[in-house]
Amino acid sequence: MHYKHLVLLVLAVFSSKNYAQNIPLYVGTYTNEDAKGVYHLQFNTETGTLSKQQLAIEIDNPSFLQYSPDRKYLYSTNATNNGFVSSYTVNEDGSLTLLTRMRSHGELPCHISLNKTGNLAAVSNYRGGTLALFPINKDGSLNDASQIFDHNSEGTKSHAHSAHFYNDDLFVADLGTNSVFQYELKKGAYKLDTDAIVKTKDNPGPRHFTMTKDGAFIYVINEIGSSITSIKRSGNKFKEIDFDSTLETDYKGKNASADIHLSNDEKFLYATNRGENTIAVFERNLKKGTIEKVQNVSVHGDWPRNFAMDPTGKFLIVANRRSNNLAVFKIDQSNGTLTFLQDYKTPTPVCLLF
Question: How many Å apart are CA 215 and CA 192, to the nearest integer?
Fold first, then answer.
């Protein structure tokens, strides 16, 4: 082979490998400070470094982000007093083009999730206390809400905080009513199956939750109680099996727990603490579903809200809202513990999406 051709081949291989190592990361923000909308970055899955931050689209308060199943479209809540939900086309350069913008049918929408086929989005309206279901067209655009659920009552103010589909079921965490609700799909519409899947004690404030892939266990992070409620599911019966603090035993300050995720292998559970400014790491009993604390590690920032693990499962990135930075951690695959690597300045980050 000619020397020139060999050099070109080596460069091409190196370039291809380097490109494969870098994957997109979208960051949702609050735009009442320095942020302008949704940001797009490159994340290196070998080194854990972030680079090439660009504004993907200028839009108000894109507080939570979600992909379509084919990743051709992206969806966001727009956490305003009026409340909006938006859909976007994902362009080849990482920028976003607005497709539709709809009223969210509630104030301060804070969470959005899609069902497995990608034809329905569930939007949680925190201040309005409502959950709205939006049909999604094949071109990624949104139709107006087909169903709206109002959890408010005469004596209780609802704060719907998150919702997730599992097969044909829809689960909703409501901080205001201290409940996790289950909705079932019946004759093409969702209907409330039970008042709450488990009874809560005191005022824990369920915020977000995560489920095992088989749907057998649900882990709920409680914002007010700084705790995790572990739930076992058998058919349509639910039982609380564990209740754990997310804080260090000697921490006495104010705290508001935020986000929760399982590791890819489901051996470990992670949760963020706003106030203590830590990530709590738990080891999970794969058979029983119970959890045990193994670490509380500083987030190297202030007010950690959302966090995400990269697709390889080797890194965890935290969005520190008040300190305007993303903190990158290496995950120990054997025991789940985290080691801080570096941080990256980003304006008012509140949601991360790989």
Answer: 18
